[in-house]
Amino acid sequence: MATTYREYIWELPVRITHWVNALSILTLSITGFYIGAPFLYAVSDTALPMAAMRFIHFTAGYIFTASVLFRIYWWFVGNQYARWNQFVPTTMERVQNTVQCGLFYCFLEDEIPHSPGHTGMAGISYAVIFTLFLFEVVSGFAMLHLANGGGMVYAIGGGWMLDVLSVGTIRMLHHVFMWCIWIFVIIHVYISWHNDIIERNGLISSIFSGYKFFGSGH
Fold this sequence. Notes:
This protein is mostly helical. It has one domain: Transmembrane di-heme cytochromes, Chain C (Fumarate Reductase Cytochrome B subunit). The protein has helices at about 10-35, 50-75, 90-105, 120-145, 150-155, 165-200, 205-210; strands spanning about 1-10, 210-215. It starts with a strand and ends with a strand.
């Protein structure tokens, strides 16, 4: 007899940072596009679209920075499904899970390997995306450091990058990595729906409730 049970997988801080990151990325992308290629112009001394867009962009950037840093902190204090070793395979079991995931997505395996939290491949992809997040944060602070003519916070946050890369290169990579993040978002949404349908474990709803559903045979 098969029974179904639910398990608490995604803690509240994980769910909150997930959605804060998502909304921040959307806001930063829209305002960033405008800042790079403005199409609205000031119609009066009080209606300044660029000033408004920059303010929104910077505010979203600060929120995004705090969310990313807090999620990294949660790698070390969260439950077993939120920990850093879910993103970097440190055991043979996680390595095998990653390999099996790769074979499944290459149509060489019929079933996706079971994993209550992140699969091995998902974990690695999140490690990569958080690396891109951190670059976007640091490069953003580097450009703020230049625009504001210095400042200790901006220098620590990313101003040092100006000693390593040119401003043009930083701007280009800031833009290119934004597109890489959106490619990840599209793939992430597709695979989430795909796996939810295959496993019937409430994967999509779990990012709201924290719970996933599993079956057991008796």
